[in-house]
């Protein structure tokens, strides 16, 4: 099938993998000139009503989700009776492949991945969707070291009235990671996913899942009957606090587990800060998660470990350059007749912004535009991004005139320029100011009309602009992918 076209648009370029329901291909989107992944239902299953509905359900389920740690659905359709799903292509490897390559993962890295998976589950559960098959094979690790959950093929909505496609007593999911209630064929809840995540974290730390019997049934029953092995005996450097989180997540009784994915994520965040402080090191995969933690939690870890490798190098070079300038100025002042140092007229100075300065702004929607990652737009690291939700029909197709993010400078200040770096050039945006964060765009004063922005954009504010405390980047048009990404946003005066 290599070279085949789906819908006259998606050219299948390479076979990526095969599962029980479908084949996965790397494909090229001829319309938008990008690489995508295509899941194509097996031919022999196209006439199976239950399998067909389950496949269609995956497309509908994931299309409702928009989260940086969930693989995004781009399109879906049918070609000659065979349904397909088009997803974002994640270049990297599965978490299972990573464990096979490295064996036991560093403790902080394992916890960081678990946090990202828990945040993805929190998003799915907020939409009343249970994954039911959380396992390392269904977690992709991209080139930047971020975890992304995929394969919602057996996900089930918890909304009342939706029929379950599985027969009573049938076990769905992979038995090495299945929750006890799932192994017994009982109803699943969000806490079933938390159990599976606890098992995945156990495997990341020890190199193998805790239960593995001679048959799948024996493995499933071990989850019901056998106690969880002591992770500290298998991995002595695991702290008691981390072991306690795993034990709670993997409790046989669902009522004894964490109440929800957010609670599990919060406990893991505290553990990550402690474990990072203990180890004294933080790979890039860990650093990018540390920067997303609440300040009171993150401050447990040394500040230098919360900076990415590129930022640490940049600061070192800046310090070296600053020392060179100081030496040059000292030498200049030793020359006979040398006057005081000159300051160039019109020279701009960047405002120092705390990580809490950035806020998402979605007044015409649900009021939320990825608030969990908005601080990444002011963290000084060009490898991290805040992004809008994906609007496949554009903002106008979603009934919105715009979305954006604003910066709280702490007090009214006269700003002369807004600077940004984006990985999605072509978006249209303007600049607005206010002295109170108005809940409607009409309550903001337009300073720079919306216009198309390049990858590195500098937006000078009009001369005589009064001081404002809040400065808003208001995005009115999205690039072709239906999503805007802001790598860094800053103000200069």
UniProtKB/TrEMBL annotation:
Annotated SUPFAM superfamilies: Protein kinase-like (PK-like)
Catalytic activity: L-threonyl-[protein] + ATP = O-phospho-L-threonyl-[protein] + ADP + H(+); L-seryl-[protein] + ATP = O-phospho-L-seryl-[protein] + ADP + H(+)
Molecular function terms from GO: ATP binding; protein serine/threonine kinase activity
InterPro entries linked to this entry: Kinase-like_dom_sf (IPR011009), Prot_kinase_dom (IPR000719), Ser/Thr_kinase_AS (IPR008271)
Chain ranges of the Protein kinase domain: 10-272
Annotated EC: 2.7.11.1
Entry-linked CDD domains: STKc_PknB_like (cd14014)
SMART domains reported for this sequence: S_TKc
Biological processes annotated in GO: negative regulation of fatty acid biosynthetic process
Alphabetical keyword list: ATP-binding, Kinase, Nucleotide-binding, Serine/threonine-protein kinase, Transferase
Top-level taxon of origin: Bacteria
Protein name: non-specific serine/threonine protein kinase
